[in-house]
Every structure is written in C-alpha cells, then in structure tokens.
Amino acid sequence: MTNVLRQRAEHQFQEELAALAAQDSRLKPPQWKLSPQAVITYLLGGKLDNGVEISAKYIGNRRLMEIAVATLATDRSLLLLGVPGTAKSWVSEHLAAAISGDSSLLIQGTAGTSEESLRYGWNYALLLAKGPSLDALVPSPMLNAMKDGKIARVEELTRIPADVQDTLITMLSEKTLPVPELGTDFQAIKGFNVIATANNRDKGVNELSSALKRRFNTVILPVPNTLNEEISIVQSRVASLGKVLELPDSPPALEQIRRVVTIFRELRTGMTEDRKAQLKVPSGTLSTAEAISVMSNGWALASHFGDGLLTADDIAAGVLGAVLKDPVQDRIPWQEYVETVMKERDGWKDLYRACRELD
Predict the structure, then answer these.
(1) Nearest alpha carbon to residue 159 among 225, 84, 94, 217
(2) Phi and psi at residue 353, to the nearest 5°
(3) How high does pLDDT run on average in the chain?
(4) What is the pTM of this model?
(5) Burial, 234: exposed, middle or buried (Cβ in 10 Å; 0-12, 13-18, 19+)?
(6) What is the Cα–Cα distance from 88 to 50, expressed in whole angstroms?
(7) How many C-beta atoms lie closer than 10 Å to residue 247's C-beta?
(8) What is the rounded CA–CA span in Å between residue 268 and residue 3?
(9) Least CB-packed of 6, 143, 149, 322 within 10 Å?
C-alpha cells in the first residue's frame, strides 16, 4: 500500500488503531472495532498507557465529536453539516475507519447519482441469460454495509436529486432494503449505520425532505474558532500531506502559514483580526481546506523551483487563485485588502510585492 497516492484512513493509521484496540477494554457496540471512548481518542489524539502517541485527526470542539460518536451507537444516522472546508469528509472517513475498520463503503453524491448507486444494480449479461437472481444483483456500498454491519458514507447528500435522496428513507427507518424483482429483502445486521455530509454553499443544492431529515441527527461542524486553532489544523494537515506526496523535508515555516490563515480569516469574516477595519468579502469560501491547499502548493513550488525555503513568492499565486474565484466580482475586495491591509502590515512587504506583481 506504500505506492498508493492516498491511503485510506484505516491503512494510513493502522498502527494507531491497533494500539487503541490492544488496550481497549470498554464496552463496544455490536460490530464496532473500538469502544466509543477509544474512537474519541483516535479522533482527538492523546497518549495511551503503553506510551503510544495518537495523533489528532480533528482539532475542535470535543463535545461535537462525542455527539457524533454517540449518534452512531444508536439507530439514528449522522449528518455532518457545515460550509465547505470544515473537515466533514475527513471526520466521516475517520469515524468509519475507527468504528468499522473500513472507510471504503462510499457513495459520492452528484446531480447524476441514481437510485442504483444507493440501492443495487444488475449485471445485465447475467440478467439476460438467467433472469433476476442473486448472482445478477450488483450490491451498492450501502447494501454491502447493511449486510456486513458496517458504516456507509454518503458524501454531499444535498447534491443528490431529491427523489433519489428519499430512497434512503426505508433503509434508515426500517433498516431494510426491499428487492421487488426477487420478492425478497435484505435486513441490516447490527453495526450498520450511515454518515452523510452536506453543505449549503454549493450551487445545485437539493433541500432534504422533512421525512429524511428526521432520520438523521445533525451535527454542525463550525469553522475554527481562533486563529491559532486554524493554524494548528493547517500545520498538521500540510505536514501529513507532505509525507504522502514525498515532498523534500523542509515543511512550510509557521510564519507563512500564519499569514495565509490570517488573510483567509479576515476576508472570510469581513474584518481584520484586530477588529479595527471592516473589509469587503469575496465570493469564495476561503476555508481551512483551501489554506491547506495553498500551503502544500507553495511547499512544492519552493522544493522543485526554488531553494527549498518557502517564500512570499511561493504562496502568493495560491492565495490569489483561492480569493479570485470570480475574476470580476472578487477583484475589488482583493485589491482593497492588498492596498489597505497587506501594504500597511509590518513584516508583510514581501508578500505585498509578490501579490502586486501577480495581480
């Protein structure tokens, strides 16, 4: 698995999961690999009695993670809601890895997602040769999760057409998937549950029906509360990505991360960190995930086209690309920020010059 570009969480952190399981003596819900308390330790990090250090996968409110894990220990499904870049997919994957040991049972929601993606399909060669049969049935990740007692993941639930979304209602309420063609049904075994993610910032969002909403317990993942919290998240994720991508061993300096995160927070909130000036807000989300992307791209630029030391020139292009999602609408707030905030800030002259040259 070492040559895989992006390892699944259960493979990337298998040593941590094994260490947690080895000393986890608490009560586990049916089919769970770890107890709820151990799942929280896996998510938030900590040091075990045997000295093993568990890295933090989520930096934020502990109570939110406890609510999410407790929900999955009941018969209610979990909906992780938030603006883009608030680690919904990341948390979803790690929850599935810690609970089921398998985060691969994934359905990616798009405008083209069909009922077959949520229920089952057919091998048409076998269907024509033998007619409807279990051999001809092609199970979806949802059906496999029901049969194996695992966690199924549905990404971007609100991008799925509304009539297809409602296919989930029977599965979530009755824990059953009827197969009328065979005159039978599949009943979920203990351990089955669903984690869905959704945000309301994308175009093409389909509102969830009230019947479907009732089947979920909703946990809203907020943007990081403080500047230092967001810096810690970006620093951790960039270091992790650097190892996966095998970038040279010269990670971005903390000061450059602080600059990017500060820019994104100020433009996102429409106010400088010191609360002394109001700013126009661009159309993009400027999320933590985008800050991670900017820093990773800057690290690659510095490593392959520079001397390995991350400079303002390496991050300027990424910042510009993240802010100017709409080249016309976003140019005014960006130029205003550059001239009124960046230009006047102590120690930012190099970044100001780099942004002016690109713009």
Answers:
(1) 84
(2) -65, -40
(3) 92
(4) 0.89
(5) buried
(6) 31
(7) 19
(8) 37
(9) 6
Q: Is 91 helix (H, G, I), strand (E, B) or coil?
A: helix
| Model pLDDT for residues 273-285, shown as the tens digit of each residue | 989 999 999 988 8
Question: Which runs of consecutive H residues, i.e. helices, occur in 219-269?
Answer: 227-244, 254-269
Burial class (CB in 10 A: 0-12, 13-18, 19+), 299: buried
| Least confident among 60-64, 163-167, 249-253 | 249-253
Q: What are phi and psi of 202, to 5 degrees?
A: -80, 150
Provide the residue type at 322 as one letter. A
Average pLDDT over residues 214-229: 93
Residue 308, pLDDT score: 81
pLDDT in tens, 298-308: 999 988 898 88
Strands 106-108 and 151-155, sheet pairing: parallel
76 neighbors 216 (Cβ within 8 angstroms): yes
- Contacts of 165-171 with CB under 8 Å at 24 or more apart are 165/206, 165/208, 165/209, 165/212, 166/209, 166/211, 166/212, 167/115, 167/118, 167/119, 168/118, 168/194, 168/212, 168/215, 169/211, 169/212, 169/215, 171/118, 171/142, 171/146
Tokens 């057409």 sit on residue:
161
